[in-house]
## 1
Amino acid sequence: MTIKEFLFRYVGSQKKLILLSFVSVFVFLLANLSLPLLVGRSLNAIGSITESGTFLLAIDFHLLTIYLVVALVLSVLGVFFDFVFEYSIGILTQKIVKDIRDDVFSKICSVPIKTIDERKHGDLLQLEIQDVENIANGLFSVFKQLVQGILSILITIVLMFTVNWIMALGIIVLSPLSLFVSKFVATFSHRHFKSQSSLMSDLNALSLESIANLETLQTLQYQERSLADFARRDENLRREGKVAQFSASWTNPTTRFVNNTIYCVIGIAGIVMILYTPSYPILGMSLGGLTSFLSYTNEYTKPFNEISSVAAEFETALFSFRRIVDFLNGKDDVDDGKTVPEKTPSTISFEDVSFSYEPEQKLIEHFSQTIRKGEKVAIVGPTGAGKTTLINLLMRFYDPTKGTIAFDGIPSTDIPKKELRKNFGMVLQDTWIFQGTILENVRYANPESSDEEVKKACEEAHADSFIKTLPHGYETIVSAKSGLSEGERQLLTIARVLLRKPEIVILDEATSNVDTRTEKLITDAFDRVMAGKTSIVIAHRLSTIQEADTIFVLKDGNVIEKGRHVDLMVKHGFYYDLYTSQFR
């Protein structure tokens, strides 16, 4: 997405508000900038400079009254349309920012899992919150000053020419000096704002990580080291922010110095022209004209000062905009599947599958196995053997680098991900509970289910017993970090799967956080619900998979042993060593 496409997508969709903003600011500026002209005309209505250089008092009360009444009307009109402009710009900014925030969140939901795994979560949080807020501040400040400033300059130029065309040309010739100075300072400060944003992302990532793992941090007595790490990064951010703000702070003073110098030059030139106008009428400068022109000199240079005064906001917003554009331009999760299976797959085949997260680090190589409907398959092996990676490939969170995973002979890449995944239910070691009631959390697996169906699933998962002890039962509000123990949260995720009743269940140490008695009850419940269906179990506690139809023993991404528990124990191989090591 380029800047042009950005403007068309987000700004172009708000045509009515933009038109209202332009009309209101034009009327406001025209009314406001007409006042110096009326003041100058009023001064000329009082008297004029004679050829001898003296002031001749000759008051035209009729003309003076007209000028003053018109000035009063224009002042009231300017105040009203100034309010309309400020309000419309505020509403316009909020609508644009809302659209950007929606698109960023939508992109987060649509990027490949690999993108989420590779990026720091604090960085994603900064995109959604901090960067969008930076753009909001930049849009309101810069867009307001830019629109108002450009129109103010154009109207002022026209009015200056009506007062004195010679002086107006002089102002236009001198004004690029201010632009040159502000451009020079802005170029220097940009790289520091870029570095500041990067350091902010790192600090957000550290904060998010510390909050998410606060219990572990306190258990390991890591508070002091964590505080020291945070303080070090925060100090680096402060230093870089100080340099960025210091460099940006020079923009406004330097442009003001240039503009004040121009003002002095114009004032001196105007006085000289007043003195020589009686002798050289072509100069066309009067006392009232000089008064008006000096006011217009201020009005002409003011937009340059105001635009430069928001240089820091502009640089911050510009860098945040580029970060968001780069993220929105990233690739979406690929889903080219067109074939919708007519029935639940009866076989899942891994056909010479190879995969690695990094090209130089091989993980799974030439993996070939078939899982049939109704089988209870267990996958065991040491840490890093590729057990969870197989599940990632099966769910199409990642696709194989070589080989094919087929469902009834149909390659998984030919099946739409939504159609593929609706056959699965997953219970992982990591539980996911969101802010809401117990009913809402379990019903997440099947939004159409009734309260009775949800409660029945909770009973089958043996979660009903602890739910009844909660203050409001199934209507109790819980969240990821409060209201429930880890084991209770895991029981709710198991209840979700039982409510969903999928054809294929994946269990990754699904009962790791519950006691042995509850584990046995849940296993029995799964066996009843999953009768005739397929289950794939990743197990570390090998005592839980003794009844599996097939056990795959993985090591270095390859199946080195395969069979039932009894058969594998008889072989006294790698599985035997794994199993017996848990009882030593």
## 2
Amino acid sequence: MREHEVPTHVQAEDKALLWFTFPQIVAVVATCAMAYGVYRYFPFGPSGLKLGLAILLGIVGIAMTAGRVGGRGLPLVCADLLKFKLGARRYAGSPSELAVSEPPPQPAARPDPLRLLAKKAAYGMGKAMKTARRKDRAPFRPHGWFGKRRRARGGDQAKRNVREARTRKPWYRLLAVAGLLGLSLLAMPSSASADDPDDNPYGDAWRLEEIYFVPPDPVSGRRIYVEKLAVTGNTAAVTLRAAQELGLKGRVYGGRKGRTLKMGVNSTFNAGQARTYNLTLNGPSPSFTFSWLDALGFAGATSLKRHQIPHPLPSADGDICDLEVTSLEWTPGQIQGVIASDCITNTRHEEDLRVYGGHFSQSVPALLDATVTVVAGTVAVAWGGHSTTAPLVPGGETAFTLAVANDRAVSELEIAADLTATLTVPRPPMLQTVHHPARTDVYTRRVTCTCGESSTVKTVRIYVHHPEHVRATERQRADVTRTRTESVLLPPGLGLGADAPYQALRVPPPQPPPPKAEQSPVGDSGWWNWLWPGD
């Protein structure tokens, strides 16, 4: 289950159920109970009329509780309209038109609009009761609407009088019920007197979501600064510095969708103090949230989101070397990182190899085993318009330092490597061919022939014919040196965020308390004037 905390010190009301606050829930329950009472105990009319009145009353009550006009509650809007209608007016002309030779008469004090409305309702109810008594009608008895009615006294004549009173249309009762409903709607917990717009020091920003208290003046300035963000594997080291004495709560979220709470930290800071936290990185999109409550009574929060945390660290596979970023660190003014490389020692080299030479020549594509003797290259790093290069350490760790502006920014980190490998390729022996044309060789031999006792010596010629042919001889070849180049680009999209430089919070001096209001008596200030103000 995801943890969700609602602080009690921020300038917002708690939502107890859905989007309703506690006063609104009480007002809605009271409205529903009143609507049910009208439907159940209304004195006359069919059930359809009672149901319609109950539904109308419920809709009006809920609208007055939860409805808003321009971000303000309907009770406040109605109170403003009533105050404008019944209250005093403000002269809109020029001051010169008000110049008179004698001081103007003091206007009579007018009562509060709600008190005036209650007074008028009470006057109407009293007048209706007097009219009913004058016409020999039954007196206004609300207890007769609920529960068991009182028994009539006086025998049959009293019963007939009660029966006639029931058959009459008690319009005064409807008037009394309407007055009570109006007073109850005006007295709901969610209603309050509207303030003058000129007296609101926060402008229209606080009118978007109406609240029923005046928050203190905020102290502008940041409380928390991120001074270091180092990522190594699945761990992030975050250094925070506080500009004001405060209490901090940190939350680490991760998981498959990045919404699961994985870790939490709680600590306190003094002004200018720095702390380092080793936070777990989990899932493809981790995030950190730090909420604070300072010594001035104000609260706030800051967060590091997915595009600000370089996780997961990138890696890329190449033909010569495989590159992987093992650590990445941001501090004010620079970015440092370590890139590990794993380079090959043996490979295969493809080339056109001559297998015959001389009179007959032929080459075939061959894949030869080669040995990597030297690997060299450079690593280029770029972030937010700043770039640097570092020589590659083959088979080891290459460290780089990139100087950046000491300012708040979020950019993608680009890392690319240009590699060159020197190969030693041994080649097999080659057959050297020699062409021999056709020829005839003549050989002379002396032969002695004996016939009886006589012998003779003769010269004999022998002809040997050699046809045309080609002869091949094997010849050894020396090893050759070849070079191979490639560019390895690490996957893009590695975001890294930099925070603004640290600045101490300047707390303004406390404002002096407002002077106490002094009351000066005007005319007769007896205690009865508070109970019965003049019209």
## 3
Amino acid sequence: MDNRRYVIGGVAVFIVVIYIIRLFTLQITSDDYKKSADSNAFLKKIEYPSRGIITDRNGKLMVYNQPAYDVMMVMNEVGEHLDTLELCDALNITKEDFIRRVNTMKDRNKNPGYSRFTQQMLLSQLSDKDFSLFQEKMFRFPGFYVQRRSIRQYNYSYAAHVLGDVAEVSPADIEEDDYYIPGDYIGKLGVERSYEKQLRGEKGIQILLRDAHGRIKGRYQNGALDQRPKPGKNLTLAIDLDLQALGERLMEGKIGSIVAIDPKTGEILCMVSSPSYDPRMMVGRQRSKNHALLSRDAWKPLLNRSIMGQYPPGSTFKTTQGLTFMTEGILHPTQTAYPCYRGFVFKGLRVGCHGHGSPLSLVPALSTSCNGYFCWGLYYMIGNHKYKTVQEAMNCWRDYMVSMGFGYQLKVDLPGEKRGMIPNAEFYDKAYKGSWNGLTIISIAIGQGEVTATPLQIANLGATIANRGYFITPHVVKKVEGEPLDSLYTKRRYTMASREAYDYVVKGMRASAMGGTCKALAHYDFVACGKTGTAQNRGHDHSVFMGFAPMDNPQIAVAVYVENGGWGATYGVPIGGLIMEQYIKGKLSDASLSKAADIQHKRIAYGSVER
């Protein structure tokens, strides 16, 4: 009896606590009732900003906006006697499609922001014709509204991988950034993605007052609480549209990439990935269908090979070896101590080479692309007594390569960039259980073996040599309206190699253009420098070129990579020369126009299929 009063008191306190918690939940933490009350009194209408337009470096309009209309639905306002068939007829969709869309809208896994009191997307991007038909009948369908917004339009069929596209947000996008709600659009690829926050602008909101029957009576407080949308910022690309168009034509029927950079600024003048697609395919309600078709294409047109393709750089990589060996004192530029017996031959190991005079110094070794010379250089560096161990020598070599822009992302302003591969001592210790030397890894001296690079990194190598020892991080956007570029795209990044070494490598690349493996460049009336590459492959070799022009006042650095194109001089040099001429001269000569047409119509057989 003495304890009963405590039990009763405890029960009473427990009940009071439960009530307090419930009241706190209803009034403070939950906004269900607030939403219900607000939806009865107000309609908060989002006003979407116009997305920033995109032009090329010369002001040519590449991407702009055009009006589109979305059908929004407030579930709490939809009457019980909705004529579903009439609604579907007005929207030009089937009843099954309508039911599927409503179920998707209510699925909180797919639409975590769902609320029956707020506007939800039912159907996006109505055409002008469908909008007009629906607007005439909309009064019959309470709870349905039309929201005006803009969608992207592309003026040209070029630069799809650079521009990217815009599509509806995913649940992951909404979770990552609370700016977005279901039905919003977001950049998915290209600069549309990497400059999304600048391009999208800021939403506005219009608060409309309802009466007891849900009819709109005007703006709440005469619009005093409304917020006007702020348009997105315009982008000026570094891309030269005429140069981009030429590059894409030259790569028709081929798999690979062309990247051109202004060495002085790091601005990317063209970025071609082949095969490509028309960016206009990714607009409107057919986007999903077209994206699925492109995704299933065996040739992977959605892959931006310029920044995602990881290839052996082949003999273009010999320039990095000459720079490293000379700066480290492994070789002297006039030294002719290394023989080439149609290749590097030592202790039973042979790395083949084509016939040429021997022994050579650095400049003719680059001009003739001698495998033996650079293999000897690596062998003597890895075994040199100036380094305590082969591991120390290897990591020193690795540091030079990284300083030149290899082995890690360059941080270009596009999503999806790959890093390529530059091995280090730890890699080889693991692969060979600590027992290896210069002969074990000799193929990296000629850009083969474990070494891989993206076409962007190879083009950046050309820009670095053109600048005699530094580069500015490559970027595709030249200007953002109203704000400066990230400092990453304005600062010089210096390499570990000496200026003297660069001067000799430039001489070697000029000699190559005058009478070596790049001799097709000799007929141009500007002073071009180049280095070919024939990257070994399980099938037909890849054709590679890296060069820049003019030699003493560089305006453009170019990398060309044509999968299974054979010798570097077969496709790489002719394409690289045309790209240089177009940019430096502003047009192609009659002879070059004929050459360009010939290259454009050549097709390379990949397996049993031609592109």
## 4
Amino acid sequence: MANKSIPYQSFCWVIGTTSFRTAKLNLKIEAQLLLLDEFYKKVIKGSSWNWNKELQEKYYDFMKERNFVTGEAKRKDKDAREKTSGLVNIGLITEARLITEAGKELLKITNDGNFEADNVFNINKDSFIYLKQLLKTSIEVSGDIVRPFIVVIKCLTELDYLSYDEFTYFIPLIKDEASTEQIISDIRLYREERIKTEEIIYKRLMQMGNYQLAQNEFMTSDVDESLICLVGMNRKSRSYDKPYYKLYENLKKVFIDGSNDYESLLNAAKKIKQKPGILWRRLLFKTTNISVVRTNGEKSIHRECPFINCTTELELKEVFFKYLHVFKAMATLSDYFDLNRRYFNITDALIFEDRIIKLDVIPKYYFREAIDILYTKAFNKDDNLRADVQLETISEAFKLDISKVYESLSRDLGIKIKSPEQAETYISDERYRRFNILIDKKFNNSVLIELLNCFEKRDDKRIEELVTDEATIPTIFEYILGIIWYKISERQGNILDFMKLSLEANLLPKTHAAGGYADIIYEYEACAAYPKHSLLIEATLTDKNNQRRMEMEPVSRHLGDYRIRFNNPFDYSLFISTYLDKNVISDFRYRKIIPYSRDEETITGMKIISMDTDSLKKIINSKIRYKYLYEVFDKYHEMPLETMDWHDGMVKEATKEYKL
């Protein structure tokens, strides 16, 4: 037995590598391209490039100097490889870590800081690069080639949507046309509750030769520890499967030999680690409380436990082998879910929300027309992975007449769309509608106040739980302030245009490696309460030690440049922070009389109002509206500079605590 070997073979695909799991994927990719480019130009300085152990260690140190990594890696070379491997997978860099043509195009977008949509899918420029790269990206699964993104599009056009469980456990099992048809058919049965998750996975596994060989070996041999370790086909080492022998022994004692030692069975199940152990315990027991199992004995076993129906050891073997591998597969597939989701998410073609995955509007109708031809490319490599090519080069499918997409969209939605401009207007209106629904569902006033408290305490983990982990905390702060001000402004205007942020397809924020102009520029039309004007909302989480150094000049410059550009004396700025430095408040106040010049143009009378998040919480609680705040801000701005306690008085009146 010891000399026998049954090889492990991959049964599913995954994009990227589990050794480098990362939130904020688009930011990390952009940052890596910038780092690799700088490293090549400044550190290598024209000498020969050889991605060997020595260079990898140098690059790790370079990443650390730039604060891209922290701590101290045990193996710097390995860490450098892992941090960059995902970029190799999607063709942005070569195996030697040189930036490809596609990578250079993304690098150019990042350096320019212009991510505005200019493509048929109406997605950001960087997202369009990712979309093209993922359309070309292929994975080898046990000798077969599959392009995961095309496969997912095929499934979405056939099934309309995918649940998270379907995306996790079924879709990555697709490796050819036959398995595509099988999985789509099985998902339909799964939705009708005519087939279980375990059955779909097991059917796929048993189509592979190594699982057939392992099952035959297991069914025809006497069971001992070495047999269990052989047929377990553990990816890392046979020894990892040793605890399964004790589990098998106890299953046989209880369900075949008639033992009442349910406590030992539970203890054996508890020796199985991580997700497979959880699944085994869930399969067998109603509870994992040892004292309850000790007391209730047989009653602790699930009624649906498949081992109950086993009358012979042969039957028990069959059931054991099935769940041994299904639960391992489920653990692997669960492990891969997050990576696959993050890579697909950066295309901005898919919407991930409410545990459902679907295509965004334009991608949905576009791919519906293109999928038949596009799908012919799903199971072969694209030699242009590293090149920056047009969609038409990726597939003939993209030569379709866009009017067909608009006709289909118009027919389904009962509207008339005949041009890209009309499509863009519809998409904008639809995003605005969805954003309002998102605010109502996810960001009521109590959540907004909790988030402001979290920003003050820098409880970053909770902030990510409430919003997203795909953006930095400062970006999320800007996003949340945008939502708050939108509600304060009684939801007038298109906040999606006012927030100078990149948003994912699910309308949550993401962060780029490049900076922007101003955080939020809110535009107000003239009304009885105020004239037509723009409000530049500047947000910061800087503390008292560096707020003055970091914020005084940029905030004044942003407003000065904006005033010169648009020539409206009523435009002003609102500076919001979790903490306000008194010197910063004073400096902004005196901008009222300090001239600002740019390119021989000068303006005076800049209005910069400062407010902290504690005041903002009071405004939210009191449901104070912008029409009132504008009046208060203007009143205090016009007061003489020598007015005592000017800022305290303004805040008290703005939050309705002011008393004459």
